[in-house]
Design a protein that fits this description.
alpha/beta; 6 helices; MobA-like_NTP_Trfase; seven-stranded mixed beta sheet; 184 residues; Spore Coat Polysaccharide Biosynthesis Protein SpsA, Chain A
């Protein structure tokens, strides 16, 4: 079983408001990310949100508030990993601010991961690799040990992650200008 943990607790300082509640194509980025994770076959789907966003989805996803979101992304990763059941063999980490992520991409990433489920699989874009990314259970302790605003890239690099090209991966929403550019 592959779970999904959606990192959605950020304050969106450069955006001027939390990104999870931004609207794109008629729905919030949080709702969109949850729908994509569900459509890719992940179960369970956990969204780690800021406390104000918890419980507003109405989808088959569990919202967990992160009261320590200001300390950085690692705290959200820890909350999501800690909530996973014993039967979860792998976790897919993704964020709400990559609107070009779709279910087909996540299914392709899962297929790549299944070729060697002992090592992580990650998307490659903008000259690097990153999320969405899949991690086997053996790496859950390393994910739990992350601190501050550092994501899991250090683990992906150390473990020699299998990579899936994702040309749209560099399109993320950090500023109001990014959102306007995407809407056009």
């Amino acid at each position: 079983m592959t779970a999904a943990v959606i990192l959605a607790a950020g304050a969106g300082r450069r955006m001027g408001r939390p990104k999870a509640q931004l609207e794109f194509e008629g729905e919030t980025l949080l709702r969109r990310a949850v729908k994509v994770a569900l459509a890719s076959g992940c179960s369970p789907v956990i969204a780690v949100t800021n406390p104000e966003d918890s419980g507003q989805l109405g989808l088959e996803a569990r919202c967990l508030p992160n009261p320590d979101a200001a300390t950085g992304m690692a705290s959200s990763i820890r909350i999501g990993i800690t909530a996973l059941e014993a039967g979860v063999e792998a976790v897919l980490l993704l964020t709400v601010d990559q609107p070009l992520v779709d279910a087909a991409l996540l299914r392709d990433l899962q297929a790549l991961f299944q070729k060697d489920p002992s090592r992580p699989a990650a998307c490659a874009y903008a000259g690097t690799l990153g999320i969405p990314a899949l991690f086997p259970r053996r790496l859950f302790p390393a994910l739990l040990a992350l601190e501050g605003d550092r994501g899991a890239k250090v683990i992906l690099l150390r473990e020699g992650a299998a990579t899936l090209p994702f040309p749209g991966g560099g399109t993320d929403l950090d500023t109001p200008e990014d959102l306007e550019r995407l809407r056009r």
